[in-house]
Design a protein that fits this description.
With 96 residues, the chain is an alpha+beta fold. It has one domain. The protein is 36% helix and 29% strand. The protein has helices spanning 5-14, 56-69, 85-95, and strands at 21-29, 36-44, 49-50, 73-76, 79-82. Strands 1, 2, 3, 4 and 5 form a five-stranded antiparallel sheet that branches. A hairpin with a 2-residue loop joins strand 4 (73-76) and strand 5 (79-82). It is globular. The N and C termini lie far apart (43 Å).
């Protein structure tokens, strides 16, 4: 029996070598409750972009910066919401 496409996706996802993380990247997404939302992902040296291997300790520095400057707030494990385009731009200039 052949695996369904979703199983193929997860098989590929877990084959990524965790040692070749490059940096955290952000993608702007549509969210039903918030206007300006960015979602964080790991970018790997082979070009893969995934949440695999991301932990709270990876987000701590970003969350501290948001609190210190009062730009954005964390609304989920890997999502940040912003009140204005200026806040979002400042965040991306620092972390993008």
């Amino acid at each position: 029996m052949h695996p369904t496409p979703i199983y193929k996706f997860f098989l590929i996802l877990f084959m990524i070598d965790m040692s070749d993380k490059v940096k955290i990247v952000f993608k702007r997404i549509h969210h039903p409750s918030y206007k300006r939302v960015l979602e964080a992902f790991w970018l790997y040296s082979n070009g893969a972009v995934t949440l695999t291997g991301m932990g709270n300790e990876d987000m701590d520095e970003i969350v501290d910066w948001c609190r210190q400057h009062r730009y954005g707030r964390r609304i989920a494990f890997n999502m940040f919401s912003f009140r204005s385009d200026q806040e979002l731009t400042a965040f991306l200039l620092r972390w993008g």
